[in-house]
Amino acid sequence: MLGNLDLSFFSWDVLAPFVIKGFWFSIWLTIVATIGGIAFGTVLALMRLSGKPSLELPAAAYVNTMRSVPLVMVLLWFFLLIPFAIGRPIGAEMSAIITFIAFEAAYFSEIVRAGIQSIPRGQVYAGYALGMSYGQNMKLVILPQAFRNMLPVFLTQTIILFQDTSLVYAIGAYDMLKGFETAGHNMGRPVEAYLLAAVLYFLMCVTLSWIVRRVQLKIQIIR
After folding, report:
1. What is the pTM of this model?
2. 3-class secondary structure per residue, the chain
3. Mean pLDDT of the region 157-163
């Protein structure tokens, strides 16, 4: 099979009409899911650290449930069940956005929780000694330091999230992988198209991983 590979007729002009649309959707989904996941995940983390069972138990149940189910299953649940619940379809793209935010929030919440717990307790007590409330202490003292410490882990999770966007094919959303697949089928060369897709995913993820390492080194220097 490898001897029959022919990449000669694949050019950017040929691939662009199929791939560009999916590429931008994959990037957009990654950005939106990262921002939404961090915001929702921070709320979940604060609930788990609140010390109040009425907040801690639901947040823990949500996080543990989401982390125990494959992402593709959650995608199918949202894609099939939300239209059934509200009585109208919401589309594959919107289903993907809702799913990724809800799913990634569980992982980001654990990162945030670990980041908050990494801050010395003396910082917390110092804030309370200055008369700050719990919310002010978190906003002005704890979270700024925690988010700086968590930045490399956030970026690493974002790379994983970008890789996971390829799973939206299961619900018919048009992502970058779908663009390569469409180009390959139209030209009768699906194997070559999937190979090029793998190379592009690899190059993008390696580049992003290098950026994460640079950021991590800068944070260590600041410390």
Report:
1. 0.86
2. CHHHCCCCCCCHHHHHHHHHHHHHHHHHHHHHHHHHHHHHHHHHHHHHCCCCHHHHHHHHHHHHHHHCCCHHHHHHHHHHHHHHHHCCCCCHHHHHHHHHHHHHHHHHHHHHHHHHHCCCHHHHHHHHHCCCCHHHHHHHHHHHHHHHHHHHHHHHHHHHHHHHHHHHHHHCCCCHHHHHHHHHHHHCCHHHHHHHHHHHHHHHHHHHHHHHHHHHHHHHHHC
3. 92
Instruction: Render pLDDT for 120-154 as a digit per residue (tens, 0 to 9).
Output: 878 878 887 888 877 788 888 888 888 888 888 88
What is the C-alpha to C-alpha distance for residues 16 and 183, in angstroms, rounded to an integer? Answer: 9
